[in-house]
């Protein structure tokens, strides 16, 4: 009995011990500066401003790091951290965060009235053909969890972050590789559209652990920079002729 008790005490002590720090040479230790804003292991919560990066498609994360470094996206703290890093190193960082499979927290309570949420849902799932606004699901996937390797999911993100990014595309503060399809879409949205879409997206549960789909069920409605391998509908803007 004494021996069993001693073994139990050892097991409890081991389980209570703090996590060993990552080796200094590992990518986990090298990206600790990222977690100061994006949260432990890049799992930022919907209550904050900074977006989650854990589990996002590696190609998308790499494209965004390149965009920050090369000035297509503007955020001084990000630019300062990565301005001297090579393409290959940025892709290693992206691969590290992309490989992290971590649970998403529940979404916050809806932050808009039902009519506004319904307007957001309709734009996300159906778009508005009369105003040349494609449905978000046409590019970001039916589950809105993104598509590997380079299209991001839009769920599990803070409403304020979604609002600010759509606004940044409208004003040119955020840009992507040409052709910049998101800038074209964002410019068609009114302020009320932006508020409705971000409110609806931020209130949704993230399905399937947030894993990106392997492929879209149909061709994209427009050619987008950074995702050249994704099929585009015939006659779509930017499609090959």
Task: Explain what you see.
Helix 4 crosses helix 6. The strands form 2 sheets. Strands 1-2 form a two-stranded antiparallel sheet. A two-stranded parallel ribbon has the order 3-4. The longest helix has 15 residues, at 2-16. The chain has 11 helices and 4 strands, in the order ααααααααββαααββ. The protein has 241 residues and is mainly α. The radius of gyration is 20 Å and the shape is globular. 31% of the residues are buried. The termini are far apart.
Strand count: 4
* Rg (C-alpha, Å): 20 Å
Poorly predicted sequence stretches spanning 5 or more consecutive residues: 1-17
Number of domains: 2
The share of residues in helices is 40-55%
For this structure, what is the CATH class of the largest domain? Mainly Alpha
Sheet of most strands = 2 strands, antiparallel
DSSP strand (E) fraction? Answer: 5-15%
The shape is globular
Q: How widely separated are the two ends?
A: 80 Å
| Largest sheet strand order | 1-2
The number of distinct helices, counting runs of at least 4 residues, comes to 11
User: What structural category arises from helix and sheet content?
Assistant: mainly alpha
Mean pLDDT: 88
**Assigned CATH architecture of the largest domain:** Orthogonal Bundle
Q: Name the CATH superfamily classification of the largest domain.
A: Cytochrome c-like domain
Which H/E pattern describes the elements?
HHHHHHHHEEHHHEE
CATH topology of the largest domain: Cytochrome Bc1 Complex, Chain D, domain 2
């Amino acid at each position: 009995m004494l021996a069993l008790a001693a073994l139990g005490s050892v097991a409890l002590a081991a389980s209570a011990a703090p996590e060993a720090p990552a080796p200094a040479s590992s990518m986990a230790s090298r990206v600790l500066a990222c977690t100061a804003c994006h949260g432990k292991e890049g799992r930022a919560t919907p209550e904050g401003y900074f977006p989650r990066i854990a589990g996002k498609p590696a190609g998308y994360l790499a494209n965004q790091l390149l965009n920050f470094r090369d000035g297509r996206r503007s955020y001084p703290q990000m630019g300062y951290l990565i301005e001297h890093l090579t393409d290959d190193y940025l892709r290693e960082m992206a691969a590290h965060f992309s490989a992290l499979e971590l649970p998403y927290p529940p979404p916050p309570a809806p932050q808009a009235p039902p009519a506004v949420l319904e307007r957001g849902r309709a734009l996300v799932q159906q778009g508005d053909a009369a105003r040349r606004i494609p449905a978000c699901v046409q590019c970001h996937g039916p589950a809105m969890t993104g598509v590997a390797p380079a299209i991001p999911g839009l769920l599990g993100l803070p409403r304020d972050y979604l609002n600010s990014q759509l606004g940044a595309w409208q004003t040119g503060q955020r840009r992507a590789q040409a052709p910049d399809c998101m800038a074209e879409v964002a410019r068609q949205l009114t302020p009320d559209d932006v508020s409705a879409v971000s409110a609806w997206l931020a209130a949704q549960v993230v399905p399937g652990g947030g894993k990106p789909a392997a492929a879209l069920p149909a061709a994209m409605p427009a050619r987008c920079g950074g995702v050249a391998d994704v099929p585009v509908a015939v006659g779509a803007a930017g499609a090959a002729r």
